[in-house]
Structures are given as C-alpha cells and as structure tokens.
C-alpha cells in the first residue's frame, strides 16, 4: 500500500528523485563542456593557407615600399644633412628650385662687387655699376640663391656628385629626403621659439618696456585702491596671441603707428582698433617694435636700435646655442662649460 500523499516518506522520496535528476544533468553538462563556462562554444574554421598567403603578400608589399624608398639608413642620413639648410642656407622655398636657379645664374653671372657698395667714397664708375646692378631685378634673388647653394654644398659634401651621377629616381628621392630634413628642422625651431617667447613675455610683464603695451583696465580693491590687472597669460601654443592680446599686438605693431593711444581718444591713426578690425595691414613694413632695442623705435630714424631686441638674441641662442643659453639676454654670454666627469676605479676584492 503506497504511503499517503502528504506523508514524510513521500516527500523524502521526491527530494531524492530531484537530487538524482539534477546530478545527472550536471554530469552530462560537464562531460559535454570542455571548460567551466556554461555558455556554448562555437568552433571557428580558419583557412590557414589563405592567412599565410595574405601575410606573404603584405610582407612583399612592405619590402617593395622599402626598395622604392631606398635604404632606411641612407634616407635618414640624408635628412640629417638637410636639417642645417633652413638655419644656414635658405629659410623658405623648395631646395630643388633654389639649386636650379643658382645653376642657371652661374651660366651668365653678374660681375661680383669687389668693394664696399655702401661706402661714401665710391667713384662715378662704381656708382654707375651699382645702379645698373640694382636695376636688374633678378640679380639679387639669384645671388641669394647662389649663396644658399654654396652653403648647401658645404653642408652636403657629395651634393654635386649626387645630382650629376645619380639616376632621376634617385635624385628625386635625394631631394625629398633633404627637403623633409630641412622642413622638420625649421618646424622644430619655430615650435621651440614659439613656446620660449611666451615664457619670456610672461616673465617680463612687470618690466616697463613690456608693461607699456598692456592696457588692461585696473580694478578697485576693498580699500578703494587701484590695482593693476594683467592681460591673459601666454601659453606655449599660439592660442591667445596676435593683435587681440595687448602685449603681442604692441610688439607686432610698427614704429610708424602709436600703439599706446588710449581708446577714448579720437585720433586719425588709431592703431589698436584698426589692426583688430583689419583696416590696418599688420605686414605693411618690417619695422615691428619687437625687433627694436627696448621695443621702441624712431619712425624718423628707423635704423636706430633695429634688430637689437633681446628677444631676437634669445631666439637666436635657443636655436644655435641651446635653450640654456637663451636664459641670458646678453649675446656675449660665454657658453657654459661642460661638467667634468671623473671615474673612480674599483678594485676587486
């Protein structure tokens, strides 16, 4: 006779039955699954032959690119030789065009000047010769190209041989490497000077020759006293520079115009407003205040103090003698001595 439905023996038999069924299902799952993860694993079919062929094709393409470019070491050394072009030969322009123009000028050069053409004791024949030379518009640019070409030949000893004995494809690659090295060097120098110039101006904002350009209005403190306010702090990038910045605009303005006129003054030459509105050309002359000693030039005698700015000296030193030497304003600061290193001999026990 079976036990009643609600008896304890019936409930225990049902628990044993569920336990056996769950253990059987777990054992089946463990036997069918290779790992502990209960999610099903889908097999991936890999075509190893196709993958190998694809890898082989890619390697062949990379090797072909290297053959077209030439040896990496040669290209790198050529770029290194071209890095001095922008500093010593020519700042802008295509190197191939400069060399071509110089070689063309050598076919029919103008006789060189063997005396000081700016002397006050020139003879009538010498003055007539200079008038004729200056009348030929193409002479001076071609002479500059020739001078740049001579500097290039000094920087790259095998330049002339490379251009005359190489195949056209090799010459093109040679020009490309030189141009890249020259442009990369110029970009590095410009970036270096851009960051340093902002730091120099920030450090000089209390100096009278820089503070005169800052027209930021003062504010009143709690005691009713006027407190000076400064313009925006210059960062390493060129984000807040230009004529919108008072100090930068004052340094970029030319000596022919007065940057310091207050804005409430009605004047015919209102430099700040005209520059910022575009009514006045920023590049109308080369005589910007940033190039002058003390950043103030004389429009009636524009040569006095020109190209004697301390920022020009620092910019030159940051490129040619290193950033450490650019901390000093004087151009006659001696180079820092290399620290002596001593090696101690250690005896083995």
From TrEMBL:
Q: What is this protein called?
A: Uncharacterized protein
Record's Pfam families? DUF6698 (PF20414)
Name the source organism: Mycena rosella (Pink bonnet)
Taxonomic lineage is: Eukaryota, Fungi, Dikarya, Basidiomycota, Agaricomycotina
InterPro entries found in the cross-reference section: DUF6698
Positions of the UniProt region annotated as Disordered: 1-41, 323-349
Domain of life of the organism encoding this protein: Eukaryota
Return the Basic residues bias intervals.
Answer: 12-31, 337-349
């Amino acid at each position: 006779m079976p036990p009643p439905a609600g008896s304890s023996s019936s409930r225990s038999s049902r628990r044993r039955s569920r336990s056996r069924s769950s253990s059987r299902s777990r054992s089946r799952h463990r036997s069918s699954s290779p790992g502990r993860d209960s999610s099903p694993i889908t097999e991936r079919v890999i075509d190893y032959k196709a993958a190998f062929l694809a890898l082989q094709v890619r390697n062949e393409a990379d090797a072909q690119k290297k053959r077209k470019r030439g040896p990496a070491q040669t290209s790198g050394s050529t770029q290194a030789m071209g890095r001095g072009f922008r500093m010593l030969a020519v700042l802008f322009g295509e190197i191939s065009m400069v060399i071509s123009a110089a070689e063309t000028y050598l076919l029919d050069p103008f006789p060189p000047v063997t005396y000081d053409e700016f002397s006050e004791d020139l003879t009538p024949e010498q003055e007539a010769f200079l008038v004729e030379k200056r009348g030929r518009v193409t002479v001076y640019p071609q002479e500059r190209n020739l001078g740049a070409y001579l500097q290039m030949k000094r920087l790259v000893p095998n330049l002339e041989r490379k251009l005359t004995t190489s195949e056209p494809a090799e010459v093109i690659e040679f020009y490309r490497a030189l141009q890249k090295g020259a442009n990369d060097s110029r970009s590095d120098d410009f970036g270096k000077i851009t960051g340093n110039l902002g730091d120099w101006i920030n450090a000089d904002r209390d100096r009278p020759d820089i503070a005169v350009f800052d027209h930021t209005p003062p504010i009143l403190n709690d005691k009713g006293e006027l407190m000076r306010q400064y313009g925006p702090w210059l960062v390493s990038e060129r984000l807040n520079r230009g004529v919108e910045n008072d100090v930068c605009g004052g340094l970029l303005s030319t000596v022919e115009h007065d940057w310091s006129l207050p804005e409430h003054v009605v004047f015919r030459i209102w430099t700040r407003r005209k520059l910022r509105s575009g009514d006045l050309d920023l590049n109308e002359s080369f005589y910007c205040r940033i190039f002058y000693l003390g950043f103030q030039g004389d429009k009636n005698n524009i040569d006095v103090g020109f190209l004697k700015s301390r920022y020009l000296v620092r910019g030159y030193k940051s490129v040619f003698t290193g950033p450490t030497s650019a901390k000093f304003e004087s151009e006659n600061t001696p180079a820092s001595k290399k620290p002596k290193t001593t090696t101690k001999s250690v005896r083995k026990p």
